[in-house]
Amino acid sequence: MNLLSEIQDIPRYVQIRERLREQISKHVLKPGQKLPSENELAKHYHVSRMTVRRAIACLVDEGLLYRQHGTGTFVAQLRIERDYTRLLSSYEQILRMGLEPGMQILSLEVRPATSKVAQYLALQEGDSVIRFERLRLADGQPVSILCSYVPQKLCPQLLREDLASCQSLFQLLESYGFRLKRAVQKTEIRWADQVQARLLEVKEQAPLIYAERVTFADDGTPVDYVEGWSRADVFSFTVVLSR
After folding, report:
1. Which of 35, 79, 115, 206 lies 20 to 30 Å from 42 when distance is taken between CA atoms?
2. Is 88 among the domain residues?
């Protein structure tokens, strides 16, 4: 870490806070990593322990750091809050959190619809669907595996797209003239198999949030059925309940 600026109108604790924030955002300090002690940081920055403690407390309040009694202060795991009060793609949700979205394409193919996929997309079993599987990243960290099924007859041009550069399937569907209006989703907990554990960088049998979602255009046409497996240690959810 660099020494602090000599600019007098910026409090020292703010400078330390922002230096630590930068180290976390650039993954110099990684999730789960222990910070140097308050004494070590105070000595490094030539400030009092109280100044260091104040800087750390700010980042603890923001959820970027956490304290473990008797052990020290650690970098918190990445957290993404899914807002289920709005219809947003994973790309849009990650972007709203101030994180950098990324994607690795796992597969893209045309295949006949199974009875389950056909039912969700209002097709006949055996009708052609485009299956698009990808690994979703946030700040370079794998967070979800998403497998979408889109009726080929609705979006035949999807196979010709540069999907790695467009990032958001929702944006593509809307560019084809579909106005995405609503979605129906079911969510439950499942356990990571060997392949999912490797892709998501978790232990085998780690809990994952499994979701099935059908997205409809404004005329009621189902345009996308997706199955997703997300890391349970990364995602939290917001819903609106009324009575």
Report:
1. 79
2. yes
Q: Are 31 and 63 in contact (CB under 8 A)?
A: no
The pLDDT confidence band at residue 76, using thresholds 50, 70 and 90, is confident
Please give the distance of CA 86 from its chain centroid, rounded to a whole number: 16
Which pairing describes strands 180-191 and 207-217: parallel, antiparallel, or unpaired?
antiparallel
Most confident of 19-33, 91-105, 163-177, 192-206: 192-206
Is-contact 102 146, C-beta < 8 A? no
What token pair was written down for 229? 């497996």
The answer to the question of residue 2 being in a domain is: no
Same domain, 113 and 191: yes
Give the domain extent around 139. 80-238
Query: Is 213:228 a contact under the CB 8 Å cutoff?
Result: yes
For position 197, which CATH number holds? 3.40.1410.10
